[in-house]
Design brief:
4-stranded antiparallel β-sheet, alpha+beta, globular
Length: 120
């Protein structure tokens, strides 16, 4: 029984820019090992660790599917890279599982952003 290949394993060295603000986003990633920093206009937004996802905002709703931040490896990174086309061809249950995770991630980021704004 044939299936689609949903993800590919990718390893990148320290200091590699994984995503660039303003570029079109046609994939997202799940960080398996390593660490990345997320910056917007050179300001640190967040540091992501294993289990976190990156690039999902451009794939799931950013205007024009454009990246909203730069993401740079702060040490060697191993991640799963998932193309939007493969994701869209996945089963409903697979997509629903990802979307639940994305929802939790986005809510956590919103809470974090609100906390930072309250300190300003």
């Amino acid at each position: 029984m044939g299936g689609i290949r949903l993800a590919e394993w990718v390893t990148v060295p320290k200091d590699t820019v994984l995503l660039r603000e303003g570029e079109k986003g046609d994939y997202f990633c799940v960080l398996v090992s390593g660490e990345v920093r997320v910056t917007r206009k050179r300001r640190l937004i967040d540091t992501l660790k294993p289990g976190d996802c990156l690039g999902e905002m451009a794939c799931l709703g950013s205007p024009g599917n454009l990246r909203t931040a730069d993401v740079t490896a702060t040490r060697e990174v191993r991640m799963l890279k998932i193309g939007v086309q493969s994701y869209q061809k996945a089963t409903d249950s697979c997509r629903i599982s990802f979307e639940r995770v994305f929802l939790h991630v986005l809510v956590a980021r919103l809470i974090q952003a609100n906390a930072k704004l309250s300190l300003v």
